[in-house]
Design a protein that fits this description.
This protein is α+β, with helices and mostly antiparallel strands. It starts with a helix and ends with a strand.
Length: about 140
C-alpha cells in the first residue's frame, strides 16, 4: 500500500470544498507546521502501524494492519480573524472528506476520525491555534 501520508494529502487536496470552510483552502503538508508560511495549514504526520493478526483465507496468508495518523489544522488571528471558527469548519470538512471518500482508497477497509482536541499554543506570538485529529485506519495484506 502507498504511504498513508501521501494518500491523505492527495485525498484532501482533491476533495477540499472551500465553500464549506469560509472560502479558505489551507496548505496541505506531510511535515510539521511552518510558522513562516503565514498561511492556514493542515499537517499530516506521525504515522504508526501495527500488525495485529495473521491468518489464512481462500487467497492465502492474511495480515491485518491497523494504523493511526495525526492531522493538525493550524492558523493564527493574523491569518484569519476567527481562528476557532475556522478550525471547526476545517475539522468538519476533513471528516466529510474521509466519510465520503475512504472507500476510494485502494486496499483500505476502514478509515475514521477517532479523536479531536484543541491544542492552542498561547506562548507563541501571535498565538497559534491548532485543532488535532487522530485518524485511524485498517487494511489487510495478503
Amino acid at each position: 500500500m502507498e504511504d498513508m501520508l501521501i494518500i491523505l494529502k492527495r485525498l484532501f487536496e482533491d476533495n477540499w470544498n472551500p465553500t464549506n470552510t469560509l472560502d479558505i483552502t489551507p496548505k496541505f503538508t506531510t511535515g510539521w507546521y511552518d510558522q513562516t508560511l503565514k498561511d492556514n495549514q493542515v499537517t499530516i504526520t506521525d504515522p504508526t502501524e501495527n500488525n495485529s493478526y495473521r491468518g489464512f483465507s481462500n487467497n492465502g496468508p492474511t495480515e491485518e494492519w491497523t494504523g493511526k495518523v495525526d492531522i493538525s489544522i493550524w492558523t493564527t488571528r493574523e491569518i484569519y480573524d476567527n481562528p476557532k471558527g475556522l478550525l471547526h469548519k476545517c475539522k468538519e470538512e476533513i471528516k466529510r472528506i474521509i466519510k465520503e471518500n475512504y472507500d476510494k482508497v485502494t486496499g483500505i477497509e476502514l478509515m475514521r476520525c477517532t479523536a479531536t482536541q484543541d491544542l492552542n499554543d498561547k506562548e507563541t506570538k501571535p498565538v497559534t491555534y491548532r485543532k488535532f485529529i487522530e485518524l485511524s485506519y485498517l487494511y489487510y495484506e495478503r
